[in-house]
Write a structure and sequence with these properties.
With 170 residues, the protein is of the alpha+beta class. The chain is globular. It has a domain of 118 residues. The strands form 3 sheets. A 4-stranded mixed β-sheet has the order 3-5-6-9. A 3-stranded antiparallel β-sheet has the order 4-8-7.
């Protein structure tokens, strides 16, 4: 593993307890009365299969500068496979995309993105039907950004959000 990976992983892992709390609330549903009364069931999982959830937390300041964008790593100087390639090839069900607060003590904004809807939009609309672009970091890492407002209403891209009002269409 590289030095940059280790540093970034340690930084982002401190947000995992809050991410688990947020994502868990979207995976669990109240059980119907019948299951509660007959099967000692108060909560149900949204889906009976395992859910693979990517998580990305941006450093403070990006939420205000790019309020409608989410980014996915699309090129590494090493040539290793990136998150965008893995997602396009079918990996992952959801992606948690959050922004660290200015104090670094939690998340200031977040989206829970349905990667199946993301892939469907890429297939149905193609890259030309979505607002997107590319950003290269100083270390040679490239990220592709996507504007959530350019995605179709169905299937819904956003499973949950800290602020649904921020998702007004273009």
């Amino acid at each position: 593993m590289t030095f940059h990976y280790d540093i970034n992983r340690q930084w982002s892992d401190r947000y995992l307890p809050q991410i688990k709390s947020i994502v868990g609330a979207h995976l669990l549903r109240d059980a119907p009365d019948f299951l509660d009364m007959k099967h000692a069931t108060d909560l149900l999982m949204l889906d009976a299969r395992d859910m693979r959830i990517a998580a990305r937390v941006r450093r403070p300041g990006y939420a205000e500068r790019y309020p409608h964008q989410f980014t996915i790593r699309s090129k590494l100087p090493s040539g290793a496979e990136t998150e965008l390639s893995k997602i396009i090839n079918g990996a992952g069900d959801w992606m948690f995309y959050g922004h660290a607060s200015v104090t670094g003590e939690g998340l200031s904004a977040w989206w829970l993105i349905d990667l199946r809807a993301f892939r469907a939009a890429l297939v149905r609309r193609g890259a030309n039907g979505l607002r997107w672009g590319s950003k290269v970091n100083r270390d040679g890492t490239r990220f592709t950004w996507f504007d959530v407002r350019s995605f179709p209403a169905e299937p819904a891209l956003i499973v949950g959000s800290s602020e649904l009002s921020s998702l007004r269409p273009l």
